[in-house]
Design brief:
Elements lengths: L1 H19 L2 H8 L16 E4 L2 E4 L22 H23 L5 E12 L7 H16 L6 E7 L8 E9 L1
Parallel strand pairs: 3-4
Antiparallel strand pairs: 1-2, 2-5, 3-5
Helix pairs in contact: 3-4
Length: 172
Amino acid sequence: MKRVILLLGFLLSAMHSQANESVDERLAGLGISLVEKGAPTANYVYAVKSGNLLFTAGHIPLDEQGQVMTGKLGDDLTTQEGAAAARQAGISLLSTIAEHVGGLDKVVRIVKVTGMVNATADYTEHSQVVNGFSDLMVEVFGEKGKHARSAVGMSSLPLNSAVEIEVIVEFE
């Protein structure tokens, strides 16, 4: 009984600690650094605010050297590699969200996600690829990171990107 009480105390303490932790502190704990973006290379913007909603453009994954993570799921890439690419697209989206709403602590909820997966016609694990993004949002925002989602396959994506992800975010 004493072990159960100690375990419950530990779990409650950990939950309280995470609830009081800022998003920036969680990012630091995950080893994630946000980067400032330059202007888009075409006639569009990275995000548009409407009321208390932020609608983002699709973001593709960049590796640590700033190179596009390319390939087709079911041909060049494994599901795990696709999920890693979706996570990287998520880090790029976090940078855009922070810039447009004045910081990630202002996020009320990640509302809707559309994950597009560059895949062969017979590939069927799109949702597992987009889980790389969804899991990151829950790591960063907790319950506020859980969202409605579509995960769809595409015959191609810009620059042969492995994934492209867009989100709708509610902010204060």
